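Weekly puzzle thread! Below is a chain. First person to post its structure in token form gets bragging rights.
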Amino acid sequence: FFHPNLAHGTVMYRVRGLPWAEKYARDTGRAGARYPWQTAASGKIASLANANEIHIVGDVALSMWQYYAATHNSTWLKEHGLPNLRATAAFFAGWAASNADGTYSLNGTQGPDEFHSGDDSCYVNAAARLNLRTAANFSTTYGLETPANWTKIADNVRLPFDSARQMHLEYAEWTDTMKAKQADTIMLSYPLGVEMPVDVRRNDLNYYANH
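Winning reply:
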């Protein structure tokens, strides 16, 4: 936000890597663009490690949105950012599974906390939700077709929540005996911008600081 000229190289690296991300998605039977955890200078996949850390796809999409928010460069958005946002949104829409209660789940994923994998990672799902909404909104702005399920998934994706303690669970299978490797669920507030009461934000921070 303060030095978008420096960020330009980073986001354009991801833009140039989009064809490789689309190939990786196809090679793994997925839709859209799947950015791998480790890439080479060209953007080509460099390692098959951490394949379930699909939060990186949402992180790349977040960088596209943040760069536009900092620059308001609509030409860049239309030519570079939006194709990336649409491709990554298609990936998440394809991964999402519908539940009997009308909600959606992203199962078998890993957030930034590399100690754990499971279903409905709060971070992964929130990043996917932001990606889907941003892609849908900008697509409408520029008159591009928007799959109806993008907004539907974004509005109904699960974020595991402990109502008794008023705090988010890192993912569906989280228990109090677990330890987090690094910041994960507390990043719902920033940079993902998930709206929540101040008390919930505080509870999340205090709980995971102790884990």
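Puzzle host: Confirmed. Bonus trivia for everyone else. The chain has seven helices and four strands.
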